[in-house]
Amino acid sequence: MTPAIVHTDVERVPLQVVRGCVIASVQIELGDEILRVFQQDLLEELRRTRARAVILDLSGVEILDTSDYRSIHRTLRMSRLMGAEPIIVGLRAGIAASLAELGAELDEVRAFGSLAQAIDLVDRRAETRG
Amino acid sequence: MEYRVPINAEHDVTRAVLQTKRCAAAAGFDDAAASMLATVASELARNIVKYARTGEVVVSVLDEADGPGVQIVAADQGPGIEDVEQAMQESYSSGGTLGLGLPGVKRMVDDMRIDTAPGHGTTVTVRKILP
To answer: Which helix (H) or strand (E) holds A99?
Structure first.
């Protein structure tokens, strides 16, 4: 039997599937390794569930520098290519201000204040499509 | 209040961020401003890891005479910056598409000084005064 690949030494971003969306709730401080594993986990989950949206909840994140953001942005663009609309929610004021000042690329990704707003949008879209 | 954080690996960036938050709170910055200062520390510390491998970040609270505010000094003995003027341009990037993020850092602080020479390392000093 082939053992599953486990990254025991890296903290992971938990993923859950709610109403056809993959919700990733980040409650840990990010870093290169965590974000690398997150990308693998997320893309695998999208492949498995064929989710129509990825909602990245960053309300638990206190600091996001340009290196973290670039990694997240890249992962979210990949999500789009897999058919899931990327949405960011819960960005703190300090992070939003920092990203704007640092000139982070903010296109292509929708942002909402809360998880409920993001899920509402995804639900409405699904209804329109019938 | 002064914290010296040796920078040798990525997890040291997190330590520099933490100490900067402490100093920002002690100086009286609100949460959002403290978060921006911590982001500045993160950018500078990451540049050390990325370009020089090792160095040091010293975060201190400026007293009434100079502030009140926070000063962050990020120093390394790495390759130095060849052309500072170019590094301060928005689209400039020396390592792939990443760039040093220095123009953004400058916008987030009140004062920024760069001492560098090719082969002689880089010291970036930034100050943010309490509004």
So the answer is: helix A93-101
Other CB atoms closer than 10 Å to residue B43's CB: what's the count?
A: 25
Contact assignment for A31 to B14 by CB distance below 8 Å: yes
- Structure confidence by residue, pLDDT tens digits, A66-75: 889 989 999 9
Check A62 against B46: CB less than 8 A apart: no
When CB atoms are compared, the residue of B10, B35, B90 closest to A92 is: B35
Residue ranges of chain A whose pLDDT lies below 70: 1-8, 130
Do B39 and A95 make contact, defined as CB atoms within 8 angstroms? Answer: yes
Contact A39, A71 (CB under 8 A): yes
Instruction: Report how many Cβ contacts below 8 Å link chain A to chain B.
Output: 66
> Which residues in B have their CB inside 8 Å of a CB on A?
10-11, 13-14, 17, 21, 31-36, 38-39, 42-43, 46, 90, 98, 101, 103-105, 107-108
ipTM field: 0.83
Q: How far is residue B86's CA from residue B105's CA, in Å, rounded to a whole number?
A: 15
The pLDDT of B86-99, averaged and rounded, is 60
> What does the pLDDT read at residue A5?
56
> Using the 8-state DSSP alphabet, how is residue A5 labeled?
P
